[in-house]
Specification:
With 156 residues, this protein is an alpha/beta fold. Strands 2, 3, 4, 5, 6 and 8 form a six-stranded mixed beta sheet that branches. 28% of the residues lie in helices and 22% in strands. Strand 2 and strand 3 form a beta hairpin. It has a single domain, classed as YbaK/aminoacyl-tRNA synthetase-associated domain (YbaK protein), CATH 3.90.960.
Amino acid sequence: MSLESVHQHLRDVAPDLDVVITEDSSATVDLAAAAHGVAPAQIAKTLSIRLRDDVFLLVARGDARLDNKKAKAAFGGKIKMLGMDEVEEITGHPVGGVCPFGLARPLKIYCDVSLKAFDEVIPAAGATNAAVRISPARMAEITNATWVDVCQEPTA
């Protein structure tokens, strides 16, 4: 159902985009980079986050690490990753396939400015072997995302 919800969402908001299905798993940043022939940084990982009673998604470059001070300032408190057992129930997507498209329920989406280093990024697409090639600006546009600066500067 998750993959189909992504297909439906993209048909509705961006019919020109194709979901790329790979034979190999792309459930982690390194696996996704290998499957799509890009550097890990170009993978757009989607983090499922809780702040008190609110849940939201943060999309960042694959090699990015959260900066706790920046995140606390941007989101107004200390954030916490969702437990693996909560992710699919809340997003509708399995761990390794979480993306900002075709969610089970409306969630606030944030995109970290680290994504802007690339003309094209590759977020998952609702399955552990599915992804989309998209510009960061377009991804933010079709998901109504808000841009934030909450990750550490890349080291390389």
